[in-house]
């Protein structure tokens, strides 16, 4: 990695606004982190003081935002050539690279220390590992070197529900581990569906996404394979104490819908996809978002029902 990639020389035309710093934290990614972490915390079989719960989720959100800022700092050179990312604060020049780096490091340290003080140090250690894994293992090491970047790097985005659970309980359990596996197995088909219809972007940036290194057919095979593997993971979570009939019913329906969408992606080639402007691929990508949200939403509903029935 060259020094230029460490500190991209991008000009800063003027002072950044609050919206630019908010965008630096990748709020869309942060929202997923916060939601899954909240479910992990709420589903835990212990009572948590509201203030401790609030501070824990805040720390996890800030840690996720810190990861996003460090990711934008490191990836500014490739972000600047991708249509999907060239408008981000660093490649567009609204935030200086070193400023993004400083913000990311400061927020990382703050979030980990505060979580340790407010909840417990095991949760803080998990948050620190999550930030490290996303920034160093995924962004710095894997992203530009292997088409398995999304598969391995997906662990960082999968860990928040476990961090939330450990913040509440101070220990590990099978239920949050299965939540992690659910997000981990969901990440590759989610991103590969996106990669199929933004393929040119990754090629311009020389990011070895599976679509670029192995082509559409292999990517479509992988999408269907991971969709199939998602089924037993999601159903196994339904057999743990945190789930119940609401979750299981939602999971069965969502798996059928997502498998059907991925089947439609698998059964056609790029020519057919280009003919209808990647309609099936875009449908699978959008459904993947709904798939994860409703699985965790069902867990949240089960926790709420448990509280009501236990009152």
TrEMBL record:
<keyword id="KW-0350">Heme biosynthesis</keyword>
<feature type="transmembrane region" description="Helical">
    <location>
        <begin position="287"/>
        <end position="309"/>
    </location>
</feature>
<keyword id="KW-0812">Transmembrane</keyword>
<keyword id="KW-0808">Transferase</keyword>
<dbReference type="InterPro" id="IPR000537">
    <property type="entry name" value="UbiA_prenyltransferase"/>
</dbReference>
<dbReference type="InterPro" id="IPR044878">
    <property type="entry name" value="UbiA_sf"/>
</dbReference>
<dbReference type="GO" id="GO:0008495">
    <property type="term" value="F:protoheme IX farnesyltransferase activity"/>
</dbReference>
<comment type="similarity">
    <text>Belongs to the UbiA prenyltransferase family. Protoheme IX farnesyltransferase subfamily.</text>
</comment>
<feature type="transmembrane region" description="Helical">
    <location>
        <begin position="174"/>
        <end position="198"/>
    </location>
</feature>
<comment type="function">
    <text>Converts heme B (protoheme IX) to heme O by substitution of the vinyl group on carbon 2 of heme B porphyrin ring with a hydroxyethyl farnesyl side group.</text>
</comment>
<feature type="transmembrane region" description="Helical">
    <location>
        <begin position="223"/>
        <end position="240"/>
    </location>
</feature>
<comment type="subunit">
    <text>Interacts with CtaA.</text>
</comment>
<keyword id="KW-0472">Membrane</keyword>
<feature type="transmembrane region" description="Helical">
    <location>
        <begin position="29"/>
        <end position="48"/>
    </location>
</feature>
<feature type="transmembrane region" description="Helical">
    <location>
        <begin position="121"/>
        <end position="142"/>
    </location>
</feature>
<keyword id="KW-1133">Transmembrane helix</keyword>
<dbReference type="InterPro" id="IPR030470">
    <property type="entry name" value="UbiA_prenylTrfase_CS"/>
</dbReference>
<dbReference type="Pfam" id="PF01040">
    <property type="entry name" value="UbiA"/>
</dbReference>
<comment type="pathway">
    <text>Porphyrin-containing compound metabolism; heme O biosynthesis; heme O from protoheme: step 1/1.</text>
</comment>
<feature type="transmembrane region" description="Helical">
    <location>
        <begin position="149"/>
        <end position="168"/>
    </location>
</feature>
<dbReference type="InterPro" id="IPR006369">
    <property type="entry name" value="Protohaem_IX_farnesylTrfase"/>
</dbReference>
<feature type="transmembrane region" description="Helical">
    <location>
        <begin position="54"/>
        <end position="74"/>
    </location>
</feature>
<protein>
    <recommendedName>
        <fullName>Protoheme IX farnesyltransferase</fullName>
        <ecNumber>2.5.1.141</ecNumber>
    </recommendedName>
</protein>
<keyword id="KW-1003">Cell membrane</keyword>
<feature type="transmembrane region" description="Helical">
    <location>
        <begin position="246"/>
        <end position="266"/>
    </location>
</feature>
